[in-house]
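Re: Re: ligand-bound prediction request (bumping)

Still looking for help on this. To restate: I need the protein modeled with iron/sulfur cluster bound, output as structure tokens. Inputs repeated here so nobody has to scroll up.
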Amino acid sequence: MVMADRNAYLAEMEVVCWRRRGSSVAAEHAAGSAVGSSPNQAGTAAGVSWEKLQREVASCTRCALHDSRRNTVFGSGSTDADWFFVGEAPGREEDRQGIPFVGRAGQLLSAMLFSLGLSHEEVYIANVLKCRPPDNRDPQGVEVNNCESFLHRQVAHIGPRIIVALGRFAAQALLQQDVAISQLRGKVHQYNIGQLPLVVTYHPAYLLRSPTAKAKSWQDLMLARSAIE
Ligand code: SF4
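Reply:
Sorry for the wait, this slipped through. Here it is.
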């Protein structure tokens, strides 16, 4: 990514240009790129189990959402990712394309990633629910209970170094805490599986509605970055 591109994304996030003390831009970007190179499951056995998981999700009928979905939305990105971003559930366009975070919220998530020196290909992005709730209503407890094991298996397979929960719903589901996002932000939590650090920030869709919260979201991303450095 060239400097001009990165500054454009930082501007989209409404943050001033950030650079590690004493590092060159090239070194900083190289460091960001290196974030995607963790030693974790690789090879045939892991590949087979990942494909099996994908097939299970694609044919899942565990909850009523399978009736109204056009596509399941498994997730996207690198299975070697160090950063695992978790959203709520597919929306209309995600359901249509079978890909998480497309549309305007996806563009803003791209800006958040690029401002960290990361690309979609270097991280993994998934939702708590793999099927779209009708009319974009909130997910229901029974749906989460039926679906969350898929997400846990994705995390266990990828073995990221950090999880970033995007929005109240993902945070509450991952942390099993029914408290406001304002109480969950600003600290490094622990995700039970693998004792992974987990940081909570706002959902990009919320940031589109409330752009003044972008500065707080940037603080969250810096907290996440410091947690794995
Ligand atoms: S939301 Fe999850 S549990 Fe429900 S049908 Fe889709 S994949 Fe299965």
